[in-house]
Amino acid sequence: MTASLVFCLNKVRVPVEELSTRATAHLKRIEKRLRRIESLEIDIDVRVAEEHRVAFERCLGHFPEFCIVTESIR
Q1: Residue 52: pLDDT above 90?
Q2: Which of 3.40.50.150, 3.40.50.720, 3.30.300.20, 1.10.3720.10 would CATH assign to domain 2-73?
Q3: Burial label, 63 (beta-carbon count in 10 A; 0-12, 13-18, 19+)
Q4: Residue 1 and which of 16, 18, 34, 43 are 20 to 30 A apart at CA?
Q5: SS3 state at 1
Q6: Residue 58's closest CA among 1, 3, 2, 5?
Q7: Rounded distance, CA 41 to CA 58, Å?
Q8: Residue 35: exposed, middle, or buried by beta-carbon count in 10 A (0-12, 13-18, 19+)?
């Protein structure tokens, strides 16, 4: 997900000043005692300069639909 956001920001020439991502996977057991990912929590903290705020907000609105992870787990 972070890579998709950074890709979007690069396309509109928004430099990232700081970036960190934390992911938590919630597991569930299925038959035969196997585990599967039930859900993911992703926290992306990104800092951009105020002058790029409008383009940044635009990317936030669009990048999930192009993100492989987001579209795979919905």
Answers
A1: yes
A2: 3.30.300.20
A3: buried
A4: 34
A5: coil
A6: 5
A7: 22
A8: exposed
Residue 62, pLDDT score: 83
Amino acid residing at 1: M
Angle formed by the axes of helices 2-11 and 53-66, nearest 10°: 130
| 3-state secondary structure at position 14 | coil
Please tell me which residue, 64 or 37, carries the higher pLDDT value. Answer: 37
What is the spatial distance between Cα 33 and Cα 64, in angstroms, rounded to a whole number?
A: 32
Q: How far apart are the first and last CA of the chain?
A: 13
pTM: 0.75
